[in-house]
């Protein structure tokens, strides 16, 4: 009987792995040019270090260390990055790409998420938020994605309004998301609930921001809107105002984004989302903003599978030393091109064609016994 993986885990095929590598390479090439460096925290850490929010480590694989302390494996990368940079005073721009494994499956049954994105630490001003948003935008545009839209919101705006009504119970991000989705929250009175529902329906260009501001008499809420306006001004100076939308009903998937939040989309698919998460875990980290790509959606839009077949070559080599010598020279000549050479040894021209057909590769080079190329 064929062995199988535990439920909820998946693996990349060879073609999917290559597609992942090529697309992430394109994205990171742009980020590196904009001053970002790769960061690689340990996959194993103390469980308490990986708990970005209370209870968030409950989903992780755990083990007891030799000294009796609780370890966790393969959790979300952000708390590990925050730990690594704790106490840093200089600006840090980092990018990352690794899987996150979960002991307990998510609602959709998956126990694997892929964390690929970037973060900026140490810039308190709106310029830092705008820098990260444009870095994400640039990486997607220069990878070949068109018709991109940027959506802006603020995760703390709801809480600032809710707490002005002095609720008797603590309100979590999940409570707010459920309220926006269902229109109900047992922890809030009807007046507060209606105010949040009305706000969540506000969506549009810069005029929407102005309209929302006119109905706000809460200083903390107004500070949220001012921050969004400052970010908008910078992005507008970059020539991006026509693709910016404000959507006050949008809340990112990661609940630790507790300030400005954004998503970048195309063809009605979310390609990346992020936001600020200042002071979430370690108070010495004074400012942090990050995002994560939705690689599945990015891959589906770029659709590089056809491009991969176009750049693949079957190199068939006859059973002679001369053929091997010629094949080596051909491979060296193709090193600087964007092709992948699949070499077949000791084959005839017909065998080479048959295998190429099975692999759906049209480009064939065959070196015969004399070391000559055949059509």
Strand order of the largest sheet: 1-5-6-12-11-10-7-9-8
Low-confidence stretches: none
Q: How much is the radius of gyration in Å? A: 26 Å
Instruction: State the helix count.
Output: 12
Q: Would you identify the CATH H-level superfamily of the largest domain?
A: Bira Bifunctional Protein, Domain 2
Largest sheet: 9 strands, mixed
Q: Provide the succession of SSEs.
A: HEEEEHEEHEHHHEHHEEEEHHEHEHEE
According to CATH, what is the topology of the largest domain? BirA Bifunctional Protein, domain 2
At CATH's second level, what is the architecture of the largest domain?
A: 2-Layer Sandwich
Number of strands: 16
Form type: elongated
Average pLDDT, to the nearest integer? 87
What structural category do the secondary elements indicate?
Answer: alpha+beta
Question: For the terminal residues, how far apart are their CA atoms?
Answer: 44 Å
- Regarding CATH, which class of the largest domain? Alpha Beta
Number of domains: 2
Descriptive notes:
- The protein is an alpha+beta fold.
- The chain folds into 2 domains: 289 residues, BirA Bifunctional Protein, domain 2 (2-Layer Sandwich), CATH 3.30.930.10; 70 residues.
- The chain contains 12 helices and 16 strands.
- It has a 9-stranded mixed β-sheet with strand order 1-5-6-12-11-10-7-9-8. The chain has a 4-stranded mixed β-sheet with strand order 14-13-15-16, sandwiched between helices. Strands 2-4-3 form a 3-stranded antiparallel β-sheet, with no helix packed on it.
- Helix 3 packs across helix 8 and helix 7 runs antiparallel to helix 8.
